[in-house]
Amino acid sequence: MCTATPAAGTVPLKLSVEHARKGFRQANGADILAIADLSFSVRSGEYVAIVGPTGAGKSVLLDCLLGLKTLDAGQILIDGRPVQNFVREKKGHITRIFQEDRLLPWLSANDNAAIGLQMQGVAEKDRRATAAKWLDAVGLSAFKEALPSELSGGMRQRVNIARAFAPDPELVLLDEAFSALDDVTATRLRQDFKTLAQAQSTTFLIVTHSIDEAIFLANRILVFGAPARLMAEIPVPARAFEDRTMSDKIKEEVRRLIAAGARTQ
Predict the structure, then answer these.
(1) Average pLDDT estimate for 142-155
(2) Which of 36, 174, 191, 234 has the fewest Cβ atoms surrounding its Cβ within 10 A?
(3) SS3 letters across 41-88
């Protein structure tokens, strides 16, 4: 995240996607390919953004990374293990921050933030204490017992962030995490998220439609075509977001690639 990317080979791979392929049959009987021969890797501690046109299979890929969907071909490895094995053996070590808050409306902010810890079997007293720590970290100290209906959209997304960090994850997936918020709130949350993330030994995969967000958060941008295939990898130099000339150059290249990779049928 705007820090120097480690030299290749010096940091172990956290995630490896190898020749992944995933298709679906639509209600009208037509087959559609969401992921087509997709390969890329992410090293431990990297912040990698994925951008691409509509229909590039980005959210489908995240479902596969969580073991919610199974590839038709190829494989996904985390720490060298098939993703299904990793998810089963290390519950809660992959977390996802959605565009929508997806909080349980009958639970307090604290109990929502503790859900991942509950899945890990952490005792109630300990999980509530850990969740409270993370709610403090995201600026919700005074709202731990508030219900989601009593919180603003930005505050609910802060609970989402606390919930994602609370289980001490090894891989955090951001799925358009800030796109439903107004510009002022989204900008503030991106900065707060970045500050929290930099203090963790965690790997981040960031799916976003915002090229500015990708440049702000990531060390490297993967540009997908539709269906999902890797068009290009673009490094994000340190302080690129603050350098208007550098940032504009990256945005121009990413836009060109996204246009070239759009689905044609």
Answers:
(1) 93
(2) 191
(3) EEECCCEEEEECCCCCCHHHHHHHHCCCCCCCEEEEEECCEEHHHHHH
